[in-house]
Structure formats: C-alpha cells, structure tokens
Design a protein that fits this description.
Blueprint: E1 2-7, E2 13-17, H1 22-31, E3 39-42, H2 48-59, E4 63-66, E5 72-75, E6 83-84, H3 86-89, H4 99-106, E7 108-112, H5 125-133, E8 137-141, E9 144-148, E10 157-159, H6 165-174, E11 181-185, H7 191-202, E12 207-208, E13 214-218, E14 226-229, H8 234-246, E15 250-254, H9 262-270, E16 274-278, E17 281-285, E18 296-297, H10 309-317, E19 322-326, H11 336-342, E20 346-350, E21 355-359, E22 368-370, H12 374-386, E23 390-394, H13 397-400, H14 406-412, E24 416-421
Parallel strand pairs: 2-15, 3-14, 6-7, 10-11, 18-19, 22-23
Antiparallel strand pairs: 1-23, 1-24, 3-5, 4-5, 7-9, 8-9, 11-13, 12-13, 15-17, 16-17, 19-21, 20-21
Bound molecules: ligand EPZ.
Ligand EPZ binds near residues 127 and 306.
Length: about 425
C-alpha cells in the first residue's frame, strides 16, 4: 500500500485543468452496453474507478481499447457474458448499474449486489423497484441479482421514494430501449444525470427533462455508436478550490463550470475567499484574508454536495469561529473526524453522528493519518498541506479512485508532497 508524505505550511499557488467527471464517465461506460455500434469516449481521466469499469466490461467479453489519442473505444457487440462478478462489483459499487443496460439490450443479466461501503449501507432498492416497474423479472440468488425480460422492457411511470443519483441514472438508462414512453418522477438533478442523458441522446435515445425532477424517456429500438466527452469533475474542481482556501493561497481551475458548484462557491465567499468566474474557469484568492467558519448542510443537488463535506470540514478546522456540518445523505460519512482530531482539530459529533460541531484552531499539526474513503482522504491531504510539520496519509489507494495524479498536481501548485510505497 502506498502513502503520501506531505510537508505542511505551503499556500497553494498556480493553476490546474480539471479532469472529466469520474461520476459521469463510469455511467457512460455502463450505458455504452446499450449501443449496437462502437462508442468512443474522449478525455477520460486515469482513475481506479474507470479502470475497474474497463476491467468489468472486459470480463464480460466487451472489447475496450485505448487508442493513440488516449480515447476509450468500447465495442459492446463483442460481449460474451451477461454476468458481473462480486469481486469486481464490490470494489466499485456504481458498476451495479450495468444490470439495467444488459437486461434492456440482451434480455438477461446477473450482477452481484454491490454491498455497502465505508460511508454507508447504500441499498439499491430504488434501482430494483424501477427495473421491476419496467417489466424485468428480478430475483436474488446467493448475493446476485438476476434480471430477465422476454422481448423488450415496457415503459412505466415510476416515482422514486427519494432523490437517488444512481437510481435515476440506472432506470433512465434501462428505459431507453423500452417500448413506449417512461416517466420518472422525484428524480435526482445532478449535472452527471444531464450528461448521461446527453450522451444517450447522441447515440439515438430520446430523453427529455434530465436535470429536473421529471424525466421522460421515449423508447427507441436501437442505439448507434458515437463519440462523447464527459463534463468537468465538479467535485475535483471543488476539492482544489477548498485546498487553496484552506492553505491561504490562490488558484485558477480551468475546465470548471461555476454553474455546477453554486452552493460551494457561495460558502467559499462566505468563508472570506475572493472568487472570480471566467469563461470555463474559476479563480479563488485567499492570500492575506481571514478564513471564517461556515455552517454546512449537505443535500441533493443543487444543495451543498456531500462529496465536498469532508474537504469543507478541514477548512472549518482552520477557520476563525465555530461551525456545524450536517450530513444528510449518508449515515457514516464522518470517518475523517478522528483523523483530523489527531492533527489537533476540535470536532464534536452529535445527533447519532449526523452533525459535527467544529471549533476553529490556530493551526493543525502534522501526523500519521489513514484514509478511509475517497473524499475523506482528500480532506486529510488538504489538512496535511495546511498543517505545521509532516503528515503521512496512508491507504492512498482510496484517493486514486477519484483524483488523477494528485501529487503531481499539488507539486505544481507548490506543495512538498510525494508518494511512497510501504
Ligand atoms: C452517487 O452515489 C455518487 N456516486 C456519490 O459519490 C455521491 O456521494 C452520491 O451520488 C450523492 O450525491 C456516483 O455517482 C458513482 P444515491 P449513489 O443513490 O448513486 C440511499 C464519490 O465520492 N439509497 O443518491 O450511490 C443511499 O444509501 C461518491 O464520488 C437507498 O436507500 O447515491 C444514500 O444514503 C460517494 N436506496 C442516499 O440514498 C437506493 O436504492 C443517496 O444515494 C439508492 C440509494
């Protein structure tokens, strides 16, 4: 296992180009299974989660090649197996979403239940409810979900019990080849859902309303191949903006849409940062400015994203004043708290660990800390950059799931950080 060794006390300074969104690209790879032609994805980030999806499709016989333009070429017609095994699905739960496309295109599939992860039990009941409503016969067998339909899936009206990003994406994708017009209500509205709909429409689907709580999918008989590039990664953009603010530095993030981060930008301005919005870029300057603590309540888009909660906690640890952070999406997403406390943070958990009360301290002190999940590891790297002294962040494979070349990028922003094998 590798670790990151960080010498703290540096104010970030410089600029980066944000990658394509991890949480969009992995959806596009799943949805490509619907196509009866080759799909090419450009500007794909080099991330563990993307590699896991490629490995999964390869396991099913789908030919996936990286061409000389570093684009991902997916040839779904080469598929030989409709089974997604546990050992792959457990490492990246979003791979569960191959179930719907396989049933829709081939009439059958067997996909391992994804199981929980560090941040919560993460059930898939809304996914199964939607697939059953579309006419799939869904059964469970030894930890696997089997789905079968004779002929085409049939359109339905489906109301999600609550806002589920993966559920909305999964059922929207499965309905593309269904007979008739499917209406999904109480949908999640994340930008990655709009991106997925745009991609599917490029391939010949007819989806309207993605990005709102009501989505209409007019079923078509087939999807062609095509070319697509995913949107910018709003969580990676936010992570670097927070890192610059927490370290008292300045940054320009290129390939960044302010409209995808309105909640974060409002909170960073409230925290005292100077923000400038350019054409497809965001500049933040915290040089010589006092960091002020801000209260956070996570929620479905466009509310403050749960995927930036841990990073903002680090910022609050270093800010003047007290603040509260309420996590409303996942039941166990404060595992970075004990690690931050080891670095001198003052944080108290309340309300069955759904609220963190943070009291800003003058400084954090470097320590040996351990990553527990993707976004918690980002918060620890930010803490290490801002802290006095040396910090080592262990189990850095977590961070490689969602942040491309983090140490190289941080080095270019002036940080003394290096990766070491253990
Ligand atoms: C997506 O997860 C993202 N992952 C997560 O990002 C993100 O935190 C989350 O949306 C919320 O924005 C990807 O896009 C690959 P949900 P997802 O379905 O789809 C419960 C990261 O760090 N639920 O909106 O799993 C669920 O347990 C990752 O990049 C059910 O109960 O999120 C959770 O408590 C982490 N039943 C809540 O709903 C279901 O059938 C929201 O989950 C589905 C979900």
């Amino acid at each position: 296992m590798a670790l990151l060794r960080i010498q703290g006390g540096t104010a970030l300074c410089g600029d980066i180009v944000a990658s394509s969104a991890k949480n969009s690209v992995i959806n596009l790879i799943s949805a490509a299974l619907l196509a009866d032609g080759s799909v090419t994805l450009g500007n794909v980030p080099h991330l563990r989660d993307v590699s896991t999806m490629i490995e999964l499709l390869g396991h099913m016989g789908v030919v996936v090649v990286i061409n000389d333009r570093m684009e991902l070429e997916i040839h779904p017609n080469a598929i030989t197996s409709m089974k997604a095994p546990y050992e792959l699905v457990k490492t990246m739960r979003a791979s569960f979403n191959v179930l719907g496309p396989l049933i829709a295109r081939y009439g059958e599939a067997e996909v391992s239940l994804p199981g929980g992860c560090a941040i919560g039990t993460r059930p898939v009941d809304q996914h199964l409810k939607g697939l059953r409503a579309l006419g799939a016969d869904i059964t469970m067998h030894e930890g696997y979900v089997r789905g079968v339909v004779s002929g085409r899936l049939q359109a339905a009206r489906i109301m999600f019990d609550f806002s589920t990003v993966g559920g909305t994406e999964h059922i929207m994708t499965a309905a593309v080849l269904a007979e008739g017009t499917t209406v999904l209500e109480n949908c999640a509205k994340e930008p990655e859902i709009e991106d997925l709909a745009r991609f599917l429409n490029v391939l010949g689907a007819d989806i309207r309303g993605a990005g709102t709580s009501r989505i209409e999918i007019h079923g078509v008989e087939r999807l062609s191949g095509g070319y697509y590039e995913a949107i910018s990664d709003r969580i990676e953009v936010g992570t670097y903006l927070i890192a610059a603010a927490a370290s008292g530095g300045s940054i320009t993030v290129n390939n960044a849409l302010a409209s995808h981060n309105t909640a974060l930008l409002a909170k960073l301005q409230e925290a005292g940062a100077a923000i400038e919005i350019g054409d497809n870029c965001i500049t933040l300057d915290m040089t010589g400015r006092q960091l002020k603590a801000v209260n956070i309540v996570t929620g479905p888009y466009p509310a403050f994203p749960t995927d930036l909660q841990a990073q903002m906690m680090t910022l609050n640890c270093l800010a003047k004043g007290a603040s509260s952070i309420q996590e409303t999406i996942f039941e166990n997403r404060f595992m970075h708290v004990p690690e931050l406390i080891r670095m001198g943070a003052e944080i108290e958990l309340q309300n069955n660990n759904s609220v963190a009360l943070v009291k800003g301290v003058d400084r954090l002190v470097g320590a040996q800390v351990m990553a527990t999940d993707l976004r918690a590891s980002a918060s620890l790297v930010i803490a290490g950059i801002a802290a006095d002294g040396e910090t080592t962040v262990d189990r850095v494979y977590h961070i490689d799931r969602g942040y491309q070349q983090i140490e190289e990028r941080m080095q270019r922003l002036g940080v003394d950080i290096r990766r070491e094998a253990r």
